[in-house]
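Ligand: 5'-deoxyadenosine. Inputs:
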Amino acid sequence: MTETTPKRLFIKTYGCQMNVYDSERMRDVLRPLGYAATETPSDADLVVLNTCHIREKATEKVYSELGQLKKMKQASGGKMTIAVAGCVAQAEGAEIMRRQPAVDLVLGPQAYHKLPEMVARASRAAGDRLETEFETLEKFDALPKAREADGPTAFLSVQEGCDKFCTFCVVPYTRGAELSRPVDDIMVEARSLASQGVRDISLLGQNVNAFHGAAPAIEGGEEWTLGRLARHLAKVGGIDRIRYTTSHPRDMDDDLVAAHGDTPEIMPFLHLPVQSGSDTILKAMNRGHTAERYLEIMRGVRAARPDIALASDFIVGFPGERDEDFEATMDLVREVNYSIAYSFKYSPRPGTPAADMFGQVPEEVKDERLQRLQALLREQQTTFNASKIGETLPVLVTGRGRMDGQIHGRSPYMQSVHFDGPAALIGEIVNVRIEGASLNSLSGVLPDASEAAA
Ligand code: 5AD
Ligand code: SF4
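Predicted complex:
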């Protein structure tokens, strides 16, 4: 084994869970080079910004962060290496290096496995600095399969990319075509995580329910759907909880819906973005489904698993959105009743069809609609959380709380739960009686603790 000098690595992650996962993998591939995490960029030898390109604001943040890093790099006497990874890197590689010459490396989401080599060679020579070609299969092949777990929850990437081409979205351009990992690889990674104490696994993909991974020859050698994969993962000892994100309504097949009812390891939580409640807008977005079809799916999953928590994403102010279209979105939200949802003002992304559409909506109209939608969503989220008061929920303990003697964890419904208890419980699933709720979390007590106190 070659000796390595310890070096400090700081990764800042923007955007979606796919990026959170990719950042974990970057830490994994850099560990053999002697890189250990540090909490602050100023004392880091290598800083990676893992970026998001989905909305304009996210891109701007990257450039302003790079301005700060440039100063730190100067203060370090030029020793700091700055890398930009992720979707901004994919979309604007050459532009980044032109706008901010302090950047040493730019690598797209498909090039992480090359990071150690690029860092080792980090030189100012052009060519070494830019790696944004799509080589997805190679990426999946090249990353180490045995991952180091970090606590009892983990992401597991099963699928990448998207062929749906929603007219507002950059993902098909930045992440490339839809591609599923082979089932065997996923199982190896899942077992490795389970053996390290991971109990709650979130299967990740931009279009995760489009999963169609090649199955092992002994299992018939065909392609598996996400439902089949999830049922199989449920049998892995130690994995008690399975989630998946993010899904598309068009890929929500009956078997996956049924699995929510017959496989208790599949958690009662479904994030199924709808974007709009208006069929006119859904069509202009190229979503490939109607509002009624979406509602039908939501009724189906509720029938399979009545307590399921439902989540979504929304865009307001898409080009051509009239008052009545927005009201249709509000009606859909009232009908579904969400536990949580993310909502955004439409942001034109260069190169996407919607950016050039007629009927761009004025900023103040977008603002007003977003405020109304978010007020309704906040109300639903608060009501959902409050509905758990008085229930006893199995909570997977994930870490220490801010106060001494406090710990926190995750409910089956993806809520964060705070309560008093010993840190020795981290990694365990414990019953917690819920006594309080707010917009973003629940609080409770260990029933045994309250009995002891009584
Ligand atoms: N403008 C606003 N929101 C967007 N999203 C994706 N692209 C855009 C855009 N151009 C939102 C969608 C998607 C989430 C990840 O980000 O709601 O589901
Ligand atoms: Fe983007 Fe649509 Fe693909 Fe989701 S389904 S990643 S919104 S193109």
